[in-house]
Amino acid sequence: MARLSIFSNPVRYGKVLFVIAAAAVVASFLYMSTGLVRDLSEQERVRMEIWADATREIIAPPAEDGMGVDIDFLLRIIESNTTIPVLLTDDEGNILQHRNFNLPEPIDSLAPADLSPVNEEFLKRKLESLATTPNVIDIVVEQGMAQHLYYEDSILLKRLSYYPYVVIAVMIAFVAVVYFAMLSTKRAEQNKVWVGLSKETAHQLGTPISSLMAWMELLPEMGVDHATVAEMNKDVNRLSTIASRFSKIGSVPQMTPADLNAIVGNAATYMATRISGRIALSTNLADEPLPVRACTPLFEWVMENLIKNAVDAMDGRGSISVTTGIDNGRAFIEVSDTGKGIPRKNFKTVFNPGYTTKKRGWGLGLTLAKRIVEQYHRGAIYVKSSVPGRSTTFRIDMPVDR
Question: Would you call 312 helix, strand, or coil by DSSP?
Fold first, then answer.
């Protein structure tokens, strides 16, 4: 048995490589950004330790040798902090000083006495919050006396810490856009192939159909029974209708007022004489006309495809029911069968090009039906329900032409 891998499918291989490369870029950026944030955080810690040392020198008792300290220099160190929010408290938790907090009410100085009740309450909440973090530096003034410096990350550091995630979100959005663009391009190419195939099929059918029509005119002169000729004419005309349907794929069909009951009834009547006698096909049409705007030849094709699928789902015996009506202001059609059913995981997959459970066939019937219903008729087609081994119901919803 041949071994399968992603390398056996170039398209899938390309997608996997694209996702891996995108993930590697995101991981690398996150790693570098996290390292940068960590380094800046450590630098801010060092700055706060220097600020604490300057505060300790200012409030410490004079040295015994009489040597003084450069107060101006120490004050410049303290004043140089214009970005990192800090709180200085005593051992009892009283706020002695604060800097760089965006207070609810403006103040003229930094002294706690100038704090309004609102600002004081704000700083107390900040202190409670900072007390649970490692951002605290103890300043031992003298034996048995200490102050405590609490600080927050600067606004720059906070923004930088969010930046990697913002960039990652942008990159993920970019990857998603590229992926869906590739997917849309693939679908557009597939649609182009199906349209080209349909038109070529219609073109190739045209010549033999014209020849058959000419022969049909000669058959009565050759003594062929008129009833036989009439039945043959029906099938030749049907072939002509089918070729016309294929030629309309890819073009915008002309929509005209129609009765959905009539379209469904005609399609069911045609199919009833062309399926096994052991399969019962019944219709339950709405009592009142269902006015819609439709391309009748294409919509009859949809109905024939649904009935054919129902026939294929049964082993030559069973029943099919076709029902029409109005539900929540929209016309609906339901085609139910007593066939082998569809697993729930395949409810949407059955409409994909190439999906088929038959040994023969291209798996285009439901794909074309979906295109005709949703793109041309502004309706919806889906698997309403299915019980494996028992039944399946397809449903079409259509806007009513008021």
Answer: helix
